[in-house]
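Quick board copy: two proteins, each given as sequence then tokens.
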Amino acid sequence: MKFSLVSVLIIGLFLNPLFATASQVLFDGHSLKNWEITDHAGRGEVSLDKNGSVILEFGIALTGIHWIGDDLPKVNYEIQWEAKKEMGSDFFGSLTFPYQENHATLILGGWGGALVGISCIDGFDASENESATAHFFRLNQWYSCRLQVTESHLKFWVDEEKLIDCEVEGREIAMRSGEIEMSTPLGFSTYDTTALIRRVVLTKFTK
């Protein structure tokens, strides 16, 4: 069966209904403007280096920063960031993010260093729901991360490899209870790990 160019374009619009409208740099690498160090018990030091990164030092359990700037979109957006783990064996560069009126956390390298997933979906942690997958992360290597949040799906890529494509419309999306809830509305966190975060950009979409 042959398709005309117009037909292919129309099919593409239905398969890819979102269009980027505006991008916003959330972390410029020069200051923590619009961010606050999250007051986790036993947190490690948080500082900036000279290469445009924020350093989240190894602490007792969680260390992180969270957004205190203008309101961010709750759906139909994408966030890109780069993360590097320097020390530790648990999650690094994990992102708590808004979805509709709730929040969830994208776990990056958790549960021993390889787990990638979203907490929580229908009450199940990242290790217990269908978003869970494994990915090997090397120490001292930068990883390009991209999370896309729409009404119907949560999608996540590492270095352009899609690791998560989870249908969530009509399902319960919520935070895991505990100190991680302090990361809302948008926050990066590590667990018993030293990590660097840089180049954080948010892009809004429209249909």
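And the next:
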Amino acid sequence: MLTDYLRTLEQHLVLHEHRILDRTAPTESLRFVRADEEKPAGAARHRYLLREAGTIRRTPWSWVKPVADRIGAAVLLIVLAPVLLALSIAVAVDTRGPLFYVHRRCGRYGAEFPLVKFRTMVMNADRLTRDLTASNEGSAVLFKMRRDPRITPVGRFLRRYSLDELPQLFNVLAGHMSIV
């Protein structure tokens, strides 16, 4: 029983690693491979374990959630259009530069997509991070400061009320994300 658990865990870890490293959705069906088949080594082992991991189950209702998400995002974008316009003007007046911050994120099946947010920091925030590392209040991996000087005044307001996340409705409308 423990060996089955460890084998399943290895399969899931390899599947996750494949999604992260290759950054592409698996092109082949995730079907079981016969037990007497020789297990390959190296990169081919990832594809083997992907097939061995099992199948993705789709129900007849699996289309309902994406359709409901897109309809909900479209309605919310229409209703919140004046708020989005006001926030866009506030960001544009506060500092020079683009209105949106676009960041690459890893989505379902390892596919990358552009995550859109309102820009809440100054333009050269990455360079300033190196200068502020001595003031880091977070862990070595995560940079955190209570009064971060890189955050603009409007950005502080947007972050406090999570309004910088509203442009992610465009990601939902495009099908990159789901409303949770």
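Board note added afterward: The first helix runs from residue 2 to 22.
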